[in-house]
Amino acid sequence: MEKHCSATFDHLEAAVITLQAEIHRDHKPNSGPELVLSEDEKSDTEDKEEAELGVMEDQRSVILHLISQLKLGMDLTKVVLPTFILEKRSLLEMYADFMAHPDLLLAVTAGATPEERVICFVEYYLTAFHEGRKGALAKKPYNPIIGETFHCSWEVPRDRVKPKRTAPHSPPSQEHLIAEEPAESYKLRFVAEQVSHHPPISCFYCECKEKRLCINTHVWTKSKFMGMSVGVSMIGEGVLRLLEHGEEYVFTLPSAYARSILTIPWVELGGKVSINCAKTGYSATVIFHTKPFYGGKVHRVTAEVKHNPTNTIVCKVHGEWNGTLEFTYNNGETKVVDTTTLPVCPKKIRPLEKQGPMESRNLWREVTRYLRLGDIDAATEQKRRLEDKQRMEERKRENLRTPWQPKYFIQEGDGWVYFNPLWKAH
Fold first, then answer.
1. In this entry, which stretches build a coiled coil (predicted)?
2. Percent of the chain whose pLDDT exceeds 90
3. Within a domain: residue 297?
């Protein structure tokens, strides 16, 4: 009887989820959903610090068993990884951390010349990765469920947006910047959505209407097993648009590697990425250097900014993406940026009770709650339920031959574009 009731409840629960999905799909992109309900947003108080305990002995045996079933180079996309390696937040939220220094991003459009603007963008780009890795321990964010969304915004004090490339950013009197009066601030809005399950494609879009600046990005993550490491390729690209200048900067993203997965896992970035602006002829090549097997420094990054029509290198950068970066300009001037002392602007996010059922923190709230309590079995069960629902809905769509309809993004060629981007609205 108990099993029958449980099965009935599961069917009922599945029906509710399916109904929610139907309602969700009725909100076609052209119906114009709001980016965020900003009046409900509050400064984020989530603590992203992860306990740096390394891998426990009983967990190591689970990982060893998993490794014994894997082959070098094997695609991990469909491999179920143990819950204890999860990071208590969705990948969609992790992408929002690329905007942790929004003052640097908004300063790009304030640059007086194309050269200054591309260098400002390279500075922002190189400082965009460290905030996503609080602490040295490598943990994996939740794989987003198809249709999952994440919304947030930032209030950026106007006096923090400085275009002068050679003027170092003076540290503020407090660790976090909080704007008291919205009128004295620029507003940067962010939305991310999981638009595809196979392959797993995430999209995110952010805009600042006052500065006429926006970024549209689509990323397909592909993981593979590399012995004592796991590599994650970030396939796709982003485009920064400066409408005031009519410029588009197309950029790619580095790969990430989780090293030493049996002891104390740590993350490093690797690979060559590019930034290109066709209109101005400026481009940048950024190389994230992986640590050599013997010796060598970790987290090294180098970059060159070039004016292609004249084949002139206008700026060189070296340092660590999560440490100190030194910029050397072609006029002999230098500038040092310490990412560890850059002020972090906290994102604003609606409380859980104001979030819809498919918004990241609300969707994963039970998994997160049990992980915080240290109840790995309960967290695993909650995660399994979410993934089972996703598979059930996917089978239903296949049977009905109805493709998934994203809420905020529209497929254009090989990429995905926000349904109401700033460049189309103006």
1. none
2. 47
3. yes
Residue 1 lies in a domain: no
Token pair 């996010």 is found at 349
- The candidate with the shortest Cα–Cα distance to 151, out of 103, 95, 195, 197, is 95
**Is residue 335 a part of any domain in this protein?**
yes
What's the residue count for the chain?
A: 426
Q: Is the pLDDT of residue 31 over 60?
A: no
Confidence of residue 16 (pLDDT cuts 50, 70, 90): very low
Evaluate whether residue 241 is within a structural domain: yes
pTM of this prediction?
Answer: 0.80
The answer to whether residue 393 scores a pLDDT higher than 80 is yes
Least confident range from 161-165, 282-286, 411-415: namely 161-165
30-51 burial code (b ≥16 CB/10 A, e <16): eeeeebbebeebeebeeebeee
Give the CATH number of the domain where residue 312 resides: 2.40.160.120
Domain region containing 96 = 38-161+184-340+348-418
Say if residues 195 and 409 touch (Cβ distance below 8 Å).
Answer: yes
Ramachandran category for residue 9: left, alpha or beta (phi over 0 → left; psi -120 to 50 → alpha): alpha
* pLDDT of res. 169: 42
Indicate the number of domains in the chain.
1
Asked if the bond preceding 199 is cis, omega within 30° of 0, the reply is yes
